[in-house]
Design a protein that fits this description.
alpha+beta; 23 helices; FAD; 12 strands; four-stranded mixed sheet; Butyryl-CoA Dehydrogenase, subunit A, domain 2; 4 domains; Butyryl-Coa Dehydrogenase, subunit A, domain 1; oxidoreductase; four-stranded antiparallel sheet; Butyryl-CoA Dehydrogenase, subunit A, domain 3; 53% helix; Acyl-CoA_Oxase/DH_mid-dom_sf
């Protein structure tokens, strides 16, 4: 049977690109993909609305005894394996995870950590899955990426949530024991704008299969994957609603070619590549969900999948703290250990306090995911945004504390007789996390959209240029009622009462209640700022990305403060000695965070955003090109974006399997 004709579009230069879409069309696609209902309460959503719902996170939720017993037993086996069977220096040196290591991880059950026991998995909770990732990521970030890409966003999670029973029974046992999986969305000319997705999945005339054509870029695990989830565009036709759709594809199917194994500044052992699909026949039963549901599946999967990177960032913070403590106590300068110099002490204090907060955020969000009582889409996104930014800063501080030794490789340190501390490697490895699974800039916009959802629900038609006068009138009436009830509540609250949150001010401990009162006041102040900005800019609000980013960063700091305080109180009630130290760290973190919050509030209205935008336009137009004179560009030749024209591969298939 001959293959169907595959529609494609080309740019004016002749190189292929995704469908040409307007900014409004791109936003519509993204809007349709998000879950537009809030069926469960959300602490973070309420926080952005000026409602500090501490009852949603306090008392701190606890895992059940069985999940703790099973989780701790697995962590013990995993630690023993990592300490005795994994050589992280070899992975860094060879830029590859040895086959025997992957085999051992499979035998240990790492591929099936989150997969239900009835399918051969371990059935770990989200909490212990993340603890396991922190262990794996600490010994080798490349192994952490392998395990995370497989289970957090690869085939298992979408199947668990959206797959049919037949699909789960067919693939989950393989995913739990033998098959490595990956998630393929990004393309050479398509990043965070899926409306331009160019990979096509054309249904056959009898509807029994789809024919897949396209190229996917940065396919983490793609070089070694046995199964992949592919996002492809199904054209609209009779009997087919079309749209971006998710498919499970066997990597040994005819027409699948891994054309390149990519190399990066960090994560040297990561199996990330370029995968081409040429007339790949995918059975219709391999489709996950309905046609057009692909982006919704992807976003829903990421609601909890995004917690994997924060877990590894928290683990990185723990390692930074350990090395900073040991080195700063041993290294002396000017007659005393460097830890006693104020400039170094500030960095050590930042690392300690922030590591406590990152673990608090991850564990709280993970347990909330396990309990399934709250909608954690904003919490998970904040965890990803906040932890990746601060982990990078902590690693940078560690390099600075180590001085020249921080810049020197572990291999070089060992060669001249010193402890092989891979601080510079950590800095390189962590850098990608600010880009992985949604860059910091995209996370700002994603969280901002969710944060203002209540406003858009009641007043969106007022600023919608496509809404008619009747729609605008109805929206005005809804908005009037909503804001008449909501705005007065932003004036005063428990944060102004000195006795509020008294359980966080036990005798003999730091006063965390004062910090929670600050969070409550900050939440109302944040909501007032958002309301004022919407009133001021209305439809132009979506273009104020600098403002929205700061709004999100303020909310993230307030969430982190809340998580840190709640965790400290939980630890105090369980272990008085550890609880006292936890209170000290939570207090320190909150004091540091409050300084950042005040700076962000100030920069909401005092900034150079407009001047920055004007200058950027001038740069792109060549106004300041003269400033580039006097240097030599070492870049090689070639197009900015590789040609991804559909068709048969002209390159050797570098795919390999650990099976």
């Amino acid at each position: 049977m001959s293959a169907p004709t595959h529609p494609r579009s080309e740019s004016s230069s002749g190189s292929p690109s995704g469908p040409r879409v307007t900014e409004r069309e791109a936003r519509r696609v993204a809007e349709e993909a998000r879950d537009q209902q809030w069926r469960k309460p959300s602490f973070a959503k309420e926080l952005f609305l000026g409602r500090f719902r501490l009852d949603l996170i306090h008392p701190h939720p606890h895992p059940d005894e069985e999940s703790v017993r099973e989780g701790e037993a697995f962590l013990a086996r995993l630690r023993a394996f990592c300490e005795t069977r994994i050589d992280p220096a070899q992975i860094e040196r060879d830029a590859r995870i040895p086959d025997e290591v992957v085999k051992g991880l499979k035998e240990l059950g790492v591929l099936g950590m989150k997969i239900d026991k009835k399918y051969g998995g371990l059935g770990l909770s989200q909490l212990y899955y993340n603890k396991a990732l922190a262990v794996l990521g600490s010994v080798s970030p490349a192994i952490g990426a392998l395990a995370s890409a497989h289970q957090s966003i690869g085939v298992p999670q979408p199947l668990k949530t959206f797959g049919t029973r037949q699909q789960q029974e067919k693939w989950l046992p393989r995913c739990a024991t033998t098959d490595i999986t990956a998630f393929l969305l990004t393309e050479p000319d398509v990043g965070s704008d899926p409306a331009r997705l160019a990979t096509m999945a054309v249904p056959s005339e009898d509807g029994s299969e789809y024919v897949l054509d396209g190229v996917k870029l940065w396919t983490t695990n793609g070089v070694v994957a046995d199964l992949v989830v592919v996002m492809a565009r199904v054209p609209r036709s009779e009997g087919h609603r079309g749209g971006i759709t998710a498919f499970v594809v066997e990597c040994d199917a005819p027409g699948v070619t891994v054309e390149n194994r990519n190399a990066f500044m960090g994560l040297r052992g990561i199996e990330n590549g370029v995968t081409r699909f040429h007339e790949v026949r995918v059975p219709a039963e391999n489709r996950i969900g309905e046609e057009g549901a692909g982006l919704k599946i992807a976003l829903t999967t990421l609601n909890t999948g995004r917690l994997s990177i924060p877990a590894m960032c928290a683990g990185a913070g723990k390692w930074c703290l350990k090395i900073a403590r040991e080195w700063s106590g041993a290294r002396e300068q000017w007659g005393k250990p460097i830890a006693e110099h104020e400039a170094v002490a500030a960095k050590i204090a930042y690392i300690a306090a922030t590591t406590f907060a990152l673990e608090a955020i991850v564990d709280l969000s993970s347990q909330m995911a396990d309990d399934n009582r709250n909608d954690i889409r904003i919490e998970a996104a904040i965890a990803k945004l906040y932890s990746t930014e601060h982990a990078w800063l902590m690693a940078d501080d560690l390099v600075q504390i180590r001085g020249g030794r921080g810049f020197e490789t572990a291999e070089s340190l060992a060669a001249r007789g010193e402890r092989a501390v891979p601080a510079e490697q950590l800095l390189r490895d962590l850098r990608i996390n600010r880009i992985f699974e949604g860059s910091t800039e995209i996370m700002h916009l994603l969280i901002a959209r969710e944060a203002v959802d209540a406003h858009l629900s009641v007043a969106g038609d007022i600023i919608d240029p496509d809404a008619d006068l009747r729609q605008k009138a109805r929206a005005a009436a809804r908005a009037g009622g909503f804001y008449a009830r909501w705005v007065p509540k932003l004036v005063a609250g428990p944060g102004q009462l000195p006795t509020s949150y008294g359980e966080f001010s036990p005798k003999g401990y730091q006063d965390l209640g004062a910090h929670l009162r600050y969070v409550e006041r900050g939440s109302r102040r944040l909501a007032r700022s958002t309301f004022y900005a919407m009133s001021r800019w209305q439809g132009r609000m979506e273009t104020k990305q600098g403002f929205l980013g700061r709004i999100v960063d303020i909310g993230a700091e307030l969430f982190a403060m809340s998580a840190a305080c709640v965790r400290a109180e939980m630890l105090r009630t369980g272990d008085a000695q550890q609880g006292r130290a936890a209170y000290e760290l939570a207090d320190l973190f909150c004091r540091q965070a409050r300084i950042r919050v005040e700076e962000l509030f100030d920069r909401l209205w005092r900034n150079t955003d407009d001047l920055d935008a004007k200058a950027a336009r001038g740069v792109v137009r060549g106004r300041y090109a003269w400033l580039e004179e006097g240097i030599i560009d070492p870049s090689g030749d070639g197009p900015w974006i590789a040609d991804a024209t559909p068709g048969p591969s002209q390159r050797e298939n570098v795919h390999r399997s650990f099976r």
